[in-house]
């Protein structure tokens, strides 16, 4: 028996990166997968690849900034496969140009990121929960970020929006646990998805590697496998948690790499 045999999953932002990995892994382990993305061509390609591999999948246009679009994707999933067992609220945006420090942040960008990164999680859950109750339970998984826990010189809205995702995850878990609905989040550190590879200069990648406890970068499948675990009944007693998948980047005293360098110099 496969790990998520027969479960029906909707993934937002499933055409690329973390969502794409989760879609492929869930389908490989027996789930019927709906890939929602505003890159509909990419979503269709992802679904076709799953089908070519012997899995079951469908694609739908989804704009995570719009309530009616999220509802339409949930309705489509239930029409297509009869139920909804796994909701992966994964879409999230960042903007290095406008999401700045608190004095200089563009306030429209603050609203946009709160809407796409946090409200879409609320809405995806809101529309999925009645179907999950009807199905006798389900698993909601949200993509947070390590930016929820550690501050940066810019990206104030991103960090606040992801911290809200962490807490919303607990509220959903507390409110619907008695309906056999679990809700957990995954908080990735830097993950080399196409977006990250294209946008982050090599010096910055090296800097991240230096501060990881492990000596390599994270990949989309590192998050995809965590999502698979949280979607499966293997995690049936885990709820309200945010699992940090970050290579030990935030594990130690932040001065440790510099301290080690000093020790090497014999100082
Ligand atoms: P990605 O850019 O590879 O994939 C994101 C997907 O979401 C794309 O297919 C895009 O078309 C889709 N999308 C974007 N806005 C959308 C919208 N409004 N409606 C529907 N679809 C939309 O990104 P990645 O890296 O896989 O990120 C996924 C999640 O992981 C995000 O929530 C991000 O904040 C989070 N994350 C990523 C990290 C990383 O290092 N890659 C680190 C921490 C969190």
List descriptors:
single chain, alpha/beta, 7-stranded parallel sheet, binds 1,4-dihydronicotinamide adenine dinucleotide
Overall description:
This protein is α/β, with parallel strands linked by helices and 267 residues long. The chain has a single domain, classed as Rossmann fold. The protein contains nine helices and seven strands; from the N terminus they run βαβαβαβαβαβαααβα. It has a seven-stranded parallel beta sheet, with helices on both faces. Strand 1, helix 1 (17-28) and strand 2 form a beta-alpha-beta unit. The longest helix has 29 residues, at 107-135. The mean pLDDT is 96. The site of 1,4-dihydronicotinamide adenine dinucleotide has 28 residues, from helix 1 and helix 6.
């Amino acid at each position: 028996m496969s790990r998520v045999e027969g479960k029906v999953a909707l993934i937002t932002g499933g055409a690329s990166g973390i969502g794409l990995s989760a879609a492929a892994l869930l389908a490989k382990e027996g789930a019927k997968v709906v890939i929602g993305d505003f890159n509909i061509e990419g979503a269709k390609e992802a679904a076709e690849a799953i089908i070519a591999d012997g899995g079951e999948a469908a694609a739908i246009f989804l704009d995570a900034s719009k309530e009616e679009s999220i509802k339409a994707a949930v309705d489509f999933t239930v029409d297509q496969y009869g139920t909804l067992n796994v909701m992966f609220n994964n879409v999230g945006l960042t903007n290095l140009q406008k999401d700045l420090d608190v004095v200089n942040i563009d306030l429209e960008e603050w609203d946009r990121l709160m809407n796409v990164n946090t409200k879409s999680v609320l809405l995806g859950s809101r529309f999925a929960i009645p179907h999950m109750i009807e199905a006798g339970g389900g698993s909601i998984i949200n993509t947070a970020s390590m930016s929820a826990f550690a501050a940066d010189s810019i990206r104030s809205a991103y960090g606040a929006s992801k911290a809200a995702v962490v807490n919303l995850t607990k509220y959903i878990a507390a409110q619907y646990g008695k309906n056999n609905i679990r809700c957990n989040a995954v908080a990735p550190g830097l993950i080399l998805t196409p977006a990250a590879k294209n946008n982050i200069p090599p010096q910055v990648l090296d800097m991240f590697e230096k501060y990881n406890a492990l000596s390599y970068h994270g990949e989309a499948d590192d998050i995809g496998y965590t999502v698979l675990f949280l979607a499966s009944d293997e995690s049936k007693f885990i709820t309200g948690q945010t699992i940090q998948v970050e290579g030990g980047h935030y594990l130690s005293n932040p001065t440790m790499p510099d301290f080690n360098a000093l020790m090497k110099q014999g100082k």
